Amino acid sequence: MYPSQNLTRRSLLAGTASLSMSALCQKALGPATAAPQPPAPIIDVHHHYLPPFYTERIMPWLVSTKASSSDPIVRWTAQKDTAELDKANISTAILSISSPGVDSPGFDFGPEKEMAPLARRCNEFAAELSKTSKGRYLFFTALPMPNIDASLKEVAYGYDNLGATGVGLMTNYRGLYLGDKSFTPLFEELNRRKAVVFIHPTDAPCCRDLIPDVPTPSTEYAVDTGRTITSLLWSGTLSKYSNIRFIFSHGGGMLPTIHSRITRGIEKFRPELMSRVPEGPIAALAKIYVDTATVANNPAFAALQAWAKPNQILYGSDYPWSTPLFGVEGLTSLGIPRDTLKMIYHDNTAALIGRA
Fold it and tell me: pTM of the predicted model, to two decimals?
């Protein structure tokens, strides 16, 4: 089990660190005032919401970390959220619950009976926000994983009753990665529904607090995203459930820098796994999508472009841990051709979710 205070502290520190790193990157890159205006409209596929009851649920742990009232996780409101969208000329944001997802007080993964009601309440909040905003907000259904039965009920409720755009998952659940066979019933249903599945990283039980004083998400979120992509690939999940459209956060984490190791490397050293991926690992990975949160800078985006095709890349801000405007200014400062930028900002996501 996860130590409750430590995980919440890490979540808070991760948010603070993200904002600090964003500010440092912005200073290093210089002002983006000379960058071309982004093509409009923009769809933000990686946009978190923090309902008041969700914040209240984790407040004791925020207080224990001496969180101030200015911290993003404390001060989120729909009004401030919408104001941030306006600043960045974003027409639509797809809401999701961030790490550690919907769980019990303290996020210690128990008791499970408290997870489904919280997931339902979050989803109904997001659906109401979508309704009152006249579609400016869409949402990914939060699931009470790893409870498969409860999650299947929430998938149905999200799609059939609330009008969800897709489903949100974490990279691992209690150390089980998404290719684990225990998740088969969920992926069968998501495949049947031709679901869009947004996957956000979270802590792995193996690898918390490995580096003293450094928040776990600063390094491990990118690694955990690579782990779960590898799990989905070599379990055969990406191939078997080909109707599912997977979106991975933060440019696919470490995937762009290790893709040859998990494709050609596995082909060479574990050739018996090839039968699980009949189209080949490179073709299987060509079907996934990644967002631009935290990679809207020259070194990271260069690595991403060297691996991914333009039609695999979607704009994501990671609000409120970063701002939509920072992400937009970052991308528009990179010299990306305008037609490609329009694909990233709007066209790729619009085609994925069936929205003009």
Answer: 0.85
